[in-house]
């Protein structure tokens, strides 16, 4: 997930920890290299800059150069700072708010981001791990293939899918899903909204109307982690218009440089809740900042 960044940073920190005594200039040099590594991983410039500044301040505050193991102390500060940038103060981001029955979960995102796949992965997870009864509905009225795809995935994972009624618009389908979920005793209903290749006003208006008709407990934005800073811009856009409660980063099994994960929280203020790690239905992992920071630092 973060192989390149991880390799770069371990190069920097191996040097530091082997060196024994450190001068302030040594720390400054190392942090410059950290900054370059972050930028190469496609972390946004202000985030990389703030990150390094914060590590620098803490290193100075803790007088690391005078400590017995200065290199390790710097690594520890970087680790804590990574956790902070990845998660802010949100320790328990992956917990979904399912505090009413039935609880609506709105899935939004651009076409091809992995929205339908992620909807099914999450439904399976809620069913298998939490014993929830889940109903899924596709609102993509313009793409019959997308509706069909959700139906196929539903059969595959054993989760019910709202039957397709030709001619209904997205809001009508959402209302029907809500009604069916109430009548049928479901705990959760998931609405897989239509995506577009780019953000447009029509898409946003439709999602807004669905949101207003259902008052979702969670609005999860699915974005392609391979798209780096574009993923962060997409999140800013959706959050500004719709209001999102969290992000699912897909394709983190690919050779993405990780910048999307590292900038997302700092730029948008929204937590990453899950990451997609493949096409299979169980290739979804909770996002734990501590674990990810550990992975990045090797
Ligand atoms: P949608 O248009 O946003 O609904 O996107 P889909 O759910 O149809 O996904 C588009 C393609 O991406 C499909 O081939 C998925 O199998 C694939 N995909 C989705 N999530 C992941 C992921 O986390 N990793 C990988 N490698 N492929 C994924």
UniProtKB/TrEMBL annotation:
Q: Which UniProt keywords apply?
A: Cytoplasm, GTP-binding, Hydrolase, Nucleotide-binding, Ribonucleoprotein, RNA-binding, Signal recognition particle
The entry lists its GO molecular-function terms as: 7S RNA binding; GTP binding; GTPase activity
Q: Cellular component per GO?
A: plasma membrane; signal recognition particle
Q: Which residues form the SRP54-type proteins GTP-binding domain?
A: 271-284
Topology relative to the membrane, per the entry? Peripheral membrane protein
Task: Give GO terms for biological process.
Answer: SRP-dependent cotranslational protein targeting to membrane
Q: Which domain of life is it from?
A: Bacteria
The protein's annotated catalytic reaction(s) are: GTP + H2O = GDP + phosphate + H(+)
Q: Does the keyword Hydrolase apply?
A: yes
Q: Which EC numbers characterise this protein's activity in its record?
A: 3.6.5.4
Q: Where does GTP bind?
A: 109-116, 192-196, 250-253
Free-text note on domains in this protein's UniProt record:
Composed of three domains: the N-terminal N domain, which is responsible for interactions with the ribosome, the central G domain, which binds GTP, and the C-terminal M domain, which binds the RNA and the signal sequence of the RNC.
What is its quaternary makeup?
Part of the signal recognition particle protein translocation system, which is composed of SRP and FtsY. SRP is a ribonucleoprotein composed of Ffh and a 4.5S RNA molecule.
Family statement? Belongs to the GTP-binding SRP family. SRP54 subfamily.
Physiological role:
Involved in targeting and insertion of nascent membrane proteins into the cytoplasmic membrane. Binds to the hydrophobic signal sequence of the ribosome-nascent chain (RNC) as it emerges from the ribosomes. The SRP-RNC complex is then targeted to the cytoplasmic membrane where it interacts with the SRP receptor FtsY. Interaction with FtsY leads to the transfer of the RNC complex to the Sec translocase for insertion into the membrane, the hydrolysis of GTP by both Ffh and FtsY, and the dissociation of the SRP-FtsY complex into the individual components.
Tell me what this protein is called. Signal recognition particle protein
The record lists the organism as Halovulum marinum
Full-protein residues shown here are: 1 to 298 of 504
